[in-house]
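In the lab's daily routine, each protein ends up as an entry in a very long ledger. A line of letters takes care of the sequence, but it says nothing directly about the fold. The three-dimensional part falls to structure tokens, numbers that each stand for a local backbone shape. The outcome of that step, for a single protein, is printed below.
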Amino acid sequence: MSLLAKNPQLTMRSWFTAIIILFLFASLVGSERGISAREEAEDTHKRRLDPELSENGKTKANWDVKLLEVSTPVLVKTGIYVERIIDLSLPDASWVADFYIWFRWDNADINPGETFQIVDGEILKKELIKKNKTTTPSYGLYRVKARVTKFFDISRYPRDDHLLTINVEDTEHQIYELQYIPDEDSTEVSSRVKLQGYEVYNKKLVQKFHSYKTDRGEVHKSDVSQDTYSQLIYGIWIKRPGWGSYIKMFEGLFAAVAVAMLSFFIRTTTTNRISLGVGAFFAAVAATYVATKNIPNIGVLTLTDVITGVSMLMIFLVIWHTIIATRLFEVHQDEKMVHRFDMIGFIIFLTSFVIVNATMVINASI
């Protein structure tokens, strides 16, 4: 005789224990993954804007210390004012900025406004607004529209945050000839800057030395074979504002889960009880497509994928609960026992689902 027929109480306890263990495991794994991804992003952002640190996976800055000690590089005070962020596209791995950039320097032999470039990007338009080389220091103001390549970390989407950087570097003069000095007091992001789905929450302007793996075939007086340039970096941190995008993205999926859980309140003798769960499962599949259609297909398991997976697993387990409840009633003909089984199941399923989602999302958010 089966355990279900011989000892229904043990069957129910074993089922609920398995559900609790399963969702507890999902909560721990999902939370740990979210914390790890968030801390890794924070470390990457810190390294990118710390002049003393090198980024993981990037060429470490390497220069001729002795040559730099005897050199007298032109110090160019430089600042940036971001007027607009015209476009930000996760699928295209890029964003477009419209900004002012200015230079102040004390050497008539150079013109940093004509020799700068945007590293990891391209200048779409550059317009000279104001120029003064007749007085000391010299001054040049430009308005620039640039497209910047940015490979967005979407592992915590839609609770993701990102660091957008404008990387300015001279194309002709290495650190022995020219170095940028950040004009932190005047650098800012316009209050008119708006991003769909994100908000700006921090900014920072720094100067770092940037080395290439090659000397590009030139003969230098430096003993170091790498070209090293002064790079001005303006970092703009963005994050998701509130929970609106999260709720909007998953409202269809959560509605499917809610519909499936209505089966706990339908009598076991009703023939359409299991069909309710099956219908909710297919609705969840459709909702999953809607939730993930805007995510770049780069083979990364995102927070969205985990939430949709947990939701579909939830509906699948509700269907299994319905099958067990139906079998219990067929064997024992005890409607009160089955009703108690359903009510306890509803509380455990609902509580577990809420806790798993809440812990994963909160731990992934900044």
About this structure: DSSP finds eight helices and ten strands in the chain.
